[in-house]
Amino acid sequence: MSLPRFDYFEPKTIDEACSLLSNLKDEAKVIAGGTDLLVSMRKREISPKYIINIKKIPKLNYVRYNKEGLEIGAGATLSNIENSGIVKEKFPLVAQAVHETGPPPIRNIATMGGNLCNAMPSADTAPSLIGLGAKVKIQGPKGIRSIPVAEFFVDSGKSALQSGEMLTEIQIPNLSANTAGVFLKIPERSVIDVAVASVAAVVTLDAAHSNIVEAKIVLGAVAPTPIRAPQAEDIIKGKTINEEIIEKAALAAAREAKPRTRPDYKRELVRVLTNRAIRQAIDLFLPDALGGG
Amino acid sequence: MKWKIELTVNGEPYELAVEPWRTLLEVIREDIELTGAKEACSTGECGNCMVILDGKPVNSCLVLAVDANGKEVLTIEGLAEGGNLHPVQKAFVEHGAIQCGFCTPGMILAAKSLLDKNPKPTETEVKEAIYGNLCRCTGYVKIIEAILAASQSMAGGK
Asked: Which residue from A24, A39, A19, A62 is spatially nearest to A118, judged by alpha carbons?
């Protein structure tokens, strides 16, 4: 099935891209990997008159590390991110989340920037990025701004990008000491599928690895946007690790989920995934402390 | 309005003028007339359109031809050398990993790509490598066997 017709641009700089987006407004769409955009176009869900390819902007395909943390360019493919030595070593949760986003041929062309800009409630990179306090850098006619990924998702399919703006970079701060995270997703069938429910759990333990000092629990695909589960977080924060409070937190997370479809099933998935994700995150510090899950 | 693009396909250079809405898959099948890559799902889920683009397996139905300008493409037709089947192709034939054959070009390219990077994959790694290739006939058992067998023969029969 062929794509609808469009005019096509290959800007060579971010400024050029933003200028095109400002002038062409709602009739233009950015293409990065194209794995969401072209599918929507093929299904005739959208028919943009203009497509702006940002992959031809030199030097947007980077994964950089400095003392603040990780900087991922808008053009970096999921494969580039997943296979980056620094990501595997210092941000394994990011590598894990990226791995779950789709099968290998999709990961070879899709981008993290695109996954965020498409703003699906089920965006697989989002829960982990929110749990890690990541931000996105946005450039537009009014200049450059950075906002937390949590604020970048405004509604189902709607990001915080204003007219003329594009996402240029994702910034992930260094993890504090004794911090680890796990991302779990239940797809319809396999990794080629969208998440039915997903959970990222990022926990910080004390130096003795017996108490949970800080916890971020982020739920995907069970609300119009990815959401934190603050009540679940409060249940385990400041507590000694034990199975009872983990299960209490999991139940709380299930109540905090706001699924609009299949609510009972999705809430149960959230309960199970939250329990597993917290246990597995703790297991990363203390293998077999809780007998897996 | 057409864009001029240059592609190398199976080692041969091509110069083409294409409209921006045409995909790499369409151009390979219709302009270059290599029909090994197939269109099935059109949404990047089945892998029947798989080609190797600059060394990486991709769903060519989701690549705009203009985006492939200046890149190298390997299709299933480019795998055999001088009439000799690639070890992966041989293994698929020998292990009965081909039924209707529709998924086969994509499967073989995914397998070749895996073995180029990871010459001794585990069964789990083989399954992960073909996650993006759906087969409606075989149930995957023979396909996985063939890929593991190919890895053995490519490693010198060890």
From this structure: A39
